[in-house]
């Protein structure tokens, strides 16, 4: 079993005229798979799932984050091997994105646009799980 961890990364956009700040969701583009997804990655030896999730966010988006509530875990086959990814909601605390070979683009989108852009249905379900909570 391949173990991994990730987050649905969110932030509040700058306030508009009425003082409200809209929710934005971070999506990363992986050129190897030409897909849009939530930041995630494989667990390293001796690492906890939570620390893996925070590390992957930093590596893939440049953002520091604060983990919030647990979201559903996802199981699927990756190259014929079972993979289980544990997810959290995570509030972005700031940072700057630098493109890499692994992640070449980062987008901050309103939830409806993020839902449309996500490649995998399982990632849309994670976004829906975040939106169903009051933790954002």
- How do the SSEs run, as a string of H and E? EEEEHEEEHH
What overall form do the CA principal axes indicate?
globular
Main sheet summary: 7 strands, mixed
- What is the quaternary state of this protein? single chain
Number of strands: 7
Structure class:
alpha+beta
* Helical run tally: 3
Q: How many domain modules?
A: 1
Average pLDDT, rounded to a whole number, is: 94
Instruction: Enumerate the spans where pLDDT stays under 50 for 5 or more consecutive residues.
Output: none
CATH architecture: Alpha-Beta Complex
CATH superfamily membership:
Nucleoside Triphosphate Pyrophosphohydrolase
Helix content: 10-25%
Strand coverage percent: 35-45%
CATH class category name: Alpha Beta
Topology (SSEs and partners):
Blueprint: E1 2-12, E2 23-30, E3 35-37, E4 40-42, H1 49-61, E5 63-78, E6 81-95, E7 105-109, H2 111-117, H3 121-131
Describe the fold and architecture.
The chain is α+β, with helices and mostly antiparallel strands and 136 residues long. The chain has a single domain, classed as Alpha-Beta Complex (Nucleoside Triphosphate Pyrophosphohydrolase), CATH 3.90.79.10. Helices cover 23% and strands 45% of the residues. It contains three helices and seven strands, in the order ββββαβββαα. Strands 1, 2, 3, 4, 5, 6 and 7 form a seven-stranded mixed beta sheet that branches. A hairpin with a 4-residue loop joins strand 2 and strand 3. The chain starts with a strand and ends in a 5-residue tail after the last helix. The mean pLDDT is 94.
